[in-house]
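go over both lines:
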Amino acid sequence: MRRLSYIRTYTGKLFYPFKPSPKDVDVRDIAHGLSNLCRFSGQCAIFWSVAQHAMLAADLSLDLSHADPRIVQLLRTYAVLHHDDSEAYCIDLPKPIKNYIPAYEKMEDGVTKAINEALNVKEQKEFVKTVDNQAFNVESSLLFDRNKLSQELALEGSTFARLAKLTTQESEKMFLDYSDMLSYEIHEEKFKPYQHYEYGTNKKIPAGKSNEKVFDIKVINNFVTQSQEYFLAQENLLMDMVKT
């Protein structure tokens, strides 16, 4: 039975949704799956992936938790970014259907636990629910009203517009970059008071006083711009090769 109950992933792993193991979880599979999975059963006006939803929600998380201590802000944003990771393996099942399939919800909970353990995601249930609802409200108001959508896409500085213009490939790369950056920042923040010493001495440097590079975590728009520039450069390089 177990031999037939796996999902083959993008990286070649075998993932067992009814017996999930953290060792079978790979963030590359998650990014790939979510960036290719459309929200709202594909009934929205444009393709809007679960990865795009997760990154929009993460950006909203930064706004909601801006007054919190930095480590809290980081942990919350990381949890929000990864709150729908199970759908990379279990698909994005519409709520009206999901609510009538208890076995699915039990399976999804198990997959989520395995992912959280593998990626070291600390649960932030109430906060994630609040942000997820906010993201849903933004999406549903724009993705089913073509006039509002057109206006939003024309706005400069709109995170939604920038995300909406990404290809699935760009979304995948950006999701991975965002996850890696947050994971790095969380590690740095947790160990900051213990890591830094004045060179050649045993004297500790107070947190925040060292010359370490600290990222500004609200860089989602920069990620989009960089991703677009990267793919444009690759396309131009390919065109030059074809011409020659």
The longest helix spans residues 168-195. The mean pLDDT is 84. The first strand starts at residue 7 and ends at 8.
